[in-house]
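re: ur question from the group chat, yeah i did fold both. here u go
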Amino acid sequence: MGAEWSFLTNHARVLVCIAHDPGLRLRDIGEVLRLTERTVFGIVTDLTAAGYVVKDRDGRRNRYRIQHHLPLRQPLGREATIGELLALLVASN
């Protein structure tokens, strides 16, 4: 069999986890995605530095807010937003 692969990058997968639960700990995201906590920390740092995620302190934990209005980094023919992508990937409750 070939190597494992995914349609989504780890950055997109972490963003989907945050969209599902903005209060998840990095350790929990890592467990769900089978990534190390250090890898998740680096990805969240990238997403925060790019402005896609805002980190808020909530007691001893962090909560994350996704900036849904921002465009994707790589246009898909027209300027789609993060919110439009997440609407496709995250089931509404």
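okk and heres the other one u asked abt
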Amino acid sequence: MLGLGIIGWIIIGGLAGWIASKIMKTDAQQGIFLNIVVGVVGGLIGGFILKLFGVDVEGGGLIFSFLTCLGGAVVLLFLVNLVTGRRAVR
């Protein structure tokens, strides 16, 4: 995902963070800035996890980068909810 540049990180991170917040039902608590942060940090977490399993994350392409960010963002939101003890808003 390094080839995308900072604008690519923001766009893909924002989309991944927003979708992850919908999946984890935390969207009502987050704004656009937090969605971007969650998505970008999720991309780092997702890339780290995939590298642990020996997956080459650098040559994956746009869709693979998005899915990596999405998966990492879901993991991040799950861990935040676990640590803070927050329940999903229903």
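fwiw on the second one: The mean pLDDT is 85. The chain is about 70% helix and 0% strand. idk if thats what u expected
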